Amino acid sequence: MTGKPNNFVKNQKLSTSGMVAIAILVILGAFYALAPHDLHISSGFGYGLEHTIHLVLGFILLAAAAAYYAKQTGMMKK
Fold first, then answer.
1. Phi/psi class of residue 52: alpha, beta or left (left: φ > 0; alpha: ψ in -120 to 50)?
2. How confident is the prediction for the chain on average, in pLDDT?
3. Structural domain contains residue 45
4. Full domain range(s) for residue 56
Protein backbone atom coordinates (compact mmCIF):
# COMPACT_ATOMS: atom_id res chain seq x y z
CA MET A 1 0.00 0.00 0.00
CA THR A 2 1.46 3.34 -1.00
CA GLY A 3 0.63 6.86 -0.02
CA LYS A 4 0.49 8.76 3.21
CA PRO A 5 -1.09 7.32 6.33
CA ASN A 6 -4.47 8.68 7.38
CA ASN A 7 -3.10 10.40 10.46
CA PHE A 8 -0.52 12.39 8.47
CA VAL A 9 -0.74 16.09 9.29
CA LYS A 10 0.71 18.52 6.79
CA ASN A 11 3.19 20.94 8.34
CA GLN A 12 1.81 24.43 8.53
CA LYS A 13 3.69 27.70 8.58
CA LEU A 14 3.58 29.87 11.67
CA SER A 15 1.97 33.27 11.38
CA THR A 16 3.85 36.35 12.47
CA SER A 17 1.68 36.69 15.56
CA GLY A 18 2.37 33.04 16.39
CA MET A 19 6.11 33.60 16.15
CA VAL A 20 5.84 36.69 18.36
CA ALA A 21 3.84 34.75 20.97
CA ILE A 22 6.44 31.96 21.00
CA ALA A 23 9.30 34.47 21.23
CA ILE A 24 7.68 36.22 24.21
CA LEU A 25 7.10 32.91 26.00
CA VAL A 26 10.68 31.78 25.35
CA ILE A 27 12.21 35.08 26.48
CA LEU A 28 10.16 35.19 29.68
CA GLY A 29 10.75 31.50 30.31
CA ALA A 30 14.49 31.84 29.84
CA PHE A 31 14.53 34.90 32.10
CA TYR A 32 12.84 33.07 34.95
CA ALA A 33 14.55 29.70 34.41
CA LEU A 34 18.12 30.87 33.80
CA ALA A 35 18.67 34.30 35.36
CA PRO A 36 20.01 34.65 38.90
CA HIS A 37 17.48 35.43 41.61
CA ASP A 38 19.03 38.83 42.31
CA LEU A 39 18.24 39.87 38.75
CA HIS A 40 14.57 38.90 39.17
CA ILE A 41 14.33 41.00 42.32
CA SER A 42 16.24 44.03 41.02
CA SER A 43 14.35 44.11 37.72
CA GLY A 44 10.99 44.45 39.47
CA PHE A 45 9.67 41.18 38.03
CA GLY A 46 10.35 39.13 41.15
CA TYR A 47 6.82 39.58 42.55
CA GLY A 48 8.12 38.61 46.01
CA LEU A 49 8.43 34.95 45.01
CA GLU A 50 11.16 32.53 46.01
CA HIS A 51 13.79 31.48 43.50
CA THR A 52 12.41 27.94 43.15
CA ILE A 53 9.04 29.38 42.13
CA HIS A 54 10.81 31.49 39.50
CA LEU A 55 12.47 28.35 38.16
CA VAL A 56 9.17 26.46 37.97
CA LEU A 57 7.49 29.44 36.30
CA GLY A 58 10.32 29.63 33.76
CA PHE A 59 10.07 25.96 32.84
CA ILE A 60 6.27 26.19 32.56
CA LEU A 61 6.62 29.13 30.15
CA LEU A 62 9.22 27.25 28.08
CA ALA A 63 6.98 24.16 27.96
CA ALA A 64 4.04 26.33 26.91
CA ALA A 65 6.11 27.79 24.07
CA ALA A 66 7.12 24.32 22.90
CA ALA A 67 3.53 23.05 23.07
CA TYR A 68 2.20 26.08 21.20
CA TYR A 69 4.85 25.65 18.50
CA ALA A 70 4.09 21.94 18.16
CA LYS A 71 0.36 22.57 17.89
CA GLN A 72 0.70 25.39 15.37
CA THR A 73 3.07 23.50 13.09
CA GLY A 74 1.03 20.31 13.10
CA MET A 75 3.46 18.25 15.16
CA MET A 76 0.69 17.40 17.63
CA LYS A 77 -2.64 15.88 16.72
CA LYS A 78 -5.47 18.36 16.93
1. alpha
2. 86
3. yes
4. 31-78
